Amino acid sequence: MQQQKTPQLAGSFSGSLAFDHALAGVGGAIVSTTAMHPLDLIKIRLQVDIASQDEAILGRAVRATRHVLSTDGISGLYRGLSANLAGNCASWGLYFAWYTWIKDQMAGGHSAETTSGTSTLSPGHHLIAGAMAGALTQFMANPLWVVKTRICTTSRGDPASYRGLIDGLTQISKKEGIRGLYKGLAPGLLGVAHGGLQFMAYEEMKKQRLRRRQRSAEKELTSADFALMSSASKVFALAITYPSQVLRSRLQHLPGETISSVAGAPRMASYSGLGDVITKTVRSEGITGFYKGFGPALLRILPGNILTFLVYEKIAGFFRRHASISA
Fold this sequence. Notes:
Pfam families: Mito_carr
InterPro entries: MCP, MCP_dom_sf, MCP_transmembrane, SLC25A32-like
Radius of gyration: 21 Å
Solcar repeats: 16-105, 121-208, 221-318
GO molecular function: nucleotide transmembrane transporter activity
Largest sheet: none
Subcellular location: Mitochondrion membrane
């Protein structure tokens, strides 16, 4: 009987496999965030909008876009880009670093990755590692997401709007303290299953796809493979965990109630906490209220996710091929 070949473990390019993956994640985040920011902005405005559920979703998205263009012009679609870049670079970099490090600990302190880029761990390990990495990342990056949400839900001319990331962090710290910087953390932590579910699906699809390619004498996965796997895993995780994003956005917007008569401007309510936002959303908007902005989220996340993973996998692959330090 033929003995099964032991997979060769990946080495490190920088001296730390976790740091290699962090750099690859940051590279992917920069490309996707810059390209997809306008859709992200519209998605957030729809998430915080308390409009009745009988209003057409496409109509709300069009009105929100028109409002941004009429108040801030074309550049308004890129309002909050610096905060979004900071948040996504920190989140993806930290996430991949934590995820890789946790997997390596699960593998006994050795690399949990082969030279082909697949994991040696089980789906259960991937789910736990992804959730743990998500929780750690969410806690560390939450202040950046609070500023991003507030900038994206206001126009430049609004009296309470922030001039940028540093101004936002400074104002929140002075006026609301640490609690203000960590608004929305609870639903964010509820959504940590998102990363676990996504990476569990992605890692398993990656293993299966690579096995099929190797059987047909093709050694490497293609860009089309990465695009398909990243899209499928993202939709799977997003459909299950999206309500936590809506809850987080509603808790993070500027304090106070805003019912604007201007068409397309988000109509926002004030909430005392997680229980309050859930109760008010169910009462006024029904279950569909928890999926507001889902359409723009898909339009933004799918191509953005594909870009992130393509760039990430290409950079990570380069690091594996040029690794100078063995695992």
